[in-house]
Write a structure and sequence with these properties.
about 220 residues; mainly alpha; two-stranded antiparallel ribbon; two-stranded antiparallel sheet; 4 strands
């Protein structure tokens, strides 16, 4: 009996910082318990790819997305910031599951719309301002390896702002964004990852090998 108690205590002591019970996470997200179990295995791989401390650091997050920990990406930086709900520079398991849940096909559309709005609200003003919209357009074009002239980029920004900014104050508020998404559902298309339905069968392609030589971490 003593050995059983010791084993139970040892198991609890090995839990990473910010650990949350899988059943609780399942009850609060679009995942079931088995899917949360599978996500925990994925999380362990990601969180030990560079620093083995049970937390996902920004470099590990970039490594998962781009197979390179030093690539600069406005979208990835903003995604990391949104996943890091506590704003302490790392992603804990509970934050990882809750954030990924928003991308689940069964997640409420309202959550996807709000997350996408926050992705564009780079300066946390509660609005998407013109300069922020331009930065995100440029970042999206860069990620897609599409090159447009400055005039074309300005035209896209002006047209989007003109169509979305219904009250004419020069910025997009959450309600205006919601109406824009209603008119153009493709704006949140990337907020749904179909393979999250099958997370127990196979990991997404962005999960890398857990052991990465130091020489491979700089592109």
């Amino acid at each position: 009996m003593r050995s059983l108690v010791n084993f139970f205590c040892l198991s609890k002591s090995k839990r990473p910082p910010g650990f949350e019970e899988h059943a609780i996470l399942a009850s609060e997200t679009a995942f079931n318990v088995n899917e949360v179990d599978a996500l925990y295995i994925m999380f362990e791989e990601l969180s030990s790819s560079i620093v083995d401390d049970g937390l996902i650091h920004k470099e590990e997050f970039l490594l998962a997305l781009f197979n390179c920990s030093s690539k600069k990406s406005l979208l990835a930086e903003k995604l990391f910031e949104l996943f890091d709900v506590k704003h302490n520079g790392v992603i804990e398991f509970g934050e990882f599951v809750r954030s990924l849940s928003i991308f689940h096909p069964d997640a409420p559309e309202a959550d996807k719309i709000a997350f996408a709005f926050n992705l564009y609200d780079l300066r946390h003003t509660g609005y998407i301002e013109r300069e922020e919209l331009k930065e995100m357009v440029l970042a999206t074009l860069s990620e897609s390896e599409i090159s447009l002239s400055d005039d074309d980029v300005e035209a896209i920004v002006d047209k989007t702002l003109q169509e979305a900014d219904s009250n004419g104050d020069g910025k997009i508020d959450p309600q205006e964004w919601k109406q824009m998404v209603k008119k153009y559902p493709s704006l949140i298309k990337n907020m749904t990852l179909p393979y999250l339905r099958e997370i127990t069968l196979a990991f997404p392609s962005f999960v890398m090998e857990t052991e990465v030589p130091d020489s491979d971490l700089v592109c």
